[in-house]
Amino acid sequence: MSNQLPREPSALSLDLKTSKKIEINHRRNKEKDHTELLDECAKTFNYEECKEQYWNPEQYSMLFGTPLWNEASESQRVLLNQLYWVAYYSQIISAEIATIFYNQTSAAGLYGLNDFRGVCDMLDLESAQERAHINAFFTISEQVEEALFGQRMFSFNMRNAYAQTMIYPDTNLLKDQWRALQLRSFALLSSGSAFIASQYFTVRGIRTLNGKMVQQRLSQYYQKHPDQESCSVPSKVSYYHYMDESFHFNSSCIIGHDVVRSLPNPTAYERLVGNLSIAGCQRDHSNFSTVVNGLFWYEPALFEPVYKILRSSHFGMDDKEAMDMMKRCFCEENQAVHDSFGTMTTAIESYKKFLDPLDYVNGPNKNLSIMRRMNVEKYLLNNRKAMSKFKAPAGYTPS
């Protein structure tokens, strides 16, 4: 006579294909975990040793394709290449702070179901890896900005998961407070609803999908370098990070596309929350940036740090020269504007393919209607309006 209590098998345990995907992705991520390598990079980084090197492929340089890039000296181009790395991964820090938190709230929502431990264990490993990523990015970015400017340009003091995910959004105090309230509400809902918990990975998948497109190219700089031993530490970090993130993207796909089929059909309210969160992601990604091609920063929010960089000793411009250069870069058509808009267009089509299989996603979200409102003409109009009001920061002294 069996002493085992009868238990209804979960839909996930019966879905052998998805269960196998979870097991394989988790096991391979543990086997190829880059945490120790990233920690070693953070410990050994010395800006003096690589300050004259490119850290990314040349086209992944700050303001690449603008008049500033076209007229820059070779040493200035190296600097812009390095600043792309600092700015890009400062944004990734912000995103990964949020990922750590929502991995845990979502795991709480999923762990309440039978046989979902494997999913939650997979997320626990990823959260630990994200902490190593953040530490490496943070350590390098701070050292670079201290050496170059003696102040922060794109890095920031650590923030909590309720802050704006985008570092340079189109926002104000009221919008920031409303956003924080939405994020707190989503955290509560995802910890108590398996569907909303799994749907978070739809949003995470969208965000990671865009990052995956850029980060693959950044990682190739080290991967294809003829002398990897002499390659810069930041280039190695890009590669190690991308290798970890490849497994994280797989997790998002498995949970957002496959695991969700093992859950009860969502209620009307759960569908509403799911679609609101996707629409929120669209709003986050509704701008494009020539400062950092591949990020969805609101360009006028970047005027101040760019102005400071142009006024620094590295470019040596006076106020009029800096203002004129910014107008040429941000308010007139140039190759960078079209390249960055092209990156946004590619992202839209990739997001569309990612969302197409999901029945609960509504038409405007599947078509990425919010993101499609942006175009080159609107970008230039926004910048011209903002530039007409922009002035040098009060009390600013060039470094």
Layout of secondary structure:
Layout: H1 11-14, H2 16-31, H3 35-44, H4 47-50, H5 67-71, H6 74-111, H7 117-148, H8 173-192, H9 194-223, H10 233-258, H11 268-284, H12 303-311, H13 319-330, H14 335-355, H15 363-366, H16 376-387
CATH-scheme architecture: Orthogonal Bundle
Mean pLDDT: 93
Helix content: 55-70%
Cα end-to-end separation = 81 Å
Nearest-angstrom radius of gyration?
22 Å
CATH fold field value: Ribonucleotide Reductase, subunit A
> CATH superfamily name?
Ribonucleotide Reductase, subunit A
CATH C-level name:
Mainly Alpha
Quickly give the structural class.
mainly alpha
Concise overview:
With 399 residues, this protein is an all-alpha fold. The protein contains 16 helices and no strands. The longest helix is centred in the N-terminal third of the chain and has 38 residues, at 74-111.
Key terms:
399 residues, mainly alpha, Ribonucleotide Reductase, subunit A, globular
Explain what the structure shows.
The chain is mostly helical and 399 residues long. It has one domain (13-387): Ribonucleotide Reductase, subunit A (Orthogonal Bundle), CATH 1.10.620. 65% of the residues lie in helices and 0% in strands. It is built from 16 helices and no strands. The chain has helices spanning 11-14, 16-31, 35-44, 47-50, 67-71, 74-111, 117-148, 173-192, 194-223, 233-258, 268-284, 303-311, 319-330, 335-355, 363-366, 376-387. α2 runs antiparallel to α10. The radius of gyration is 22 Å and the shape is globular.
